[in-house]
Amino acid sequence: MKAAVTEEQVLILLKEVIDPEVGINIVDLGLVKEIMANGDSIYVNLVLTTRNCPMVDYLKDQILLKLRCIEGIGTVNVNILDEKWDWSKFNKRTYFEVLT
């Protein structure tokens, strides 16, 4: 029996999704608000850098592509939240640790 997927596994994969407008992954950028796993389903709540973000479909597609590769995952849901994003959500420490 396959072990349940963990939030850490999901975060590792989501760090591979880069926001092409700023060149930073969506986790360190602070766009990933919440991750929930329930059986064979993963739910990702996401905030965007702007309300009318032109990259919303691209980001959703990339998240789906990354998370559907997890063995045993049947459904991936990406929910876009109507919340304001600002640079205070950016995880500078983690981002710069990766660069060095």
Q: Can you describe this structure?
A:
- It is globular and about 35 Å long.
- By secondary structure, the chain is of the alpha+beta class.
- 28% of the residues lie in helices and 23% in strands.
- It has a single domain, classed as GMP Synthetase, Chain A, domain 3 (2-Layer Sandwich).
- The mean pLDDT is 87.
The name of the CATH topology is GMP Synthetase, Chain A, domain 3
Which residue ranges are poorly predicted, with pLDDT under 50 across at least 5 consecutive positions?
none
Radius of gyration: 13 Å
CATH superfamily: Fe-S cluster assembly (FSCA)
Morphology: globular
For this structure, what is the CATH class?
Alpha Beta
Binned strand content: 15-25%
Helix/strand-derived category reads alpha+beta
The largest sheet, given as strand count, sense and whether it forms a barrel, is: 3 strands, mixed
Q: Strand order across the biggest sheet?
A: 3-4-5
- The tally of domains stands at 1
Mean pLDDT: 87
Secondary-structure element order, as H and E? HEEEEHEH
Q: Any chance you could write out the topology, listing elements then pairs?
A:
Layout: H1 7-14, E1 18-19, E2 24-25, E3 32-38, E4 41-46, H2 56-67, E5 75-80, H3 92-99
Brief descriptors of the model:
100 residues; alpha+beta
Summarize the structure.
The protein is of the alpha+beta class and 100 residues long. The chain has 3 helices and 5 strands, in the order αββββαβα.
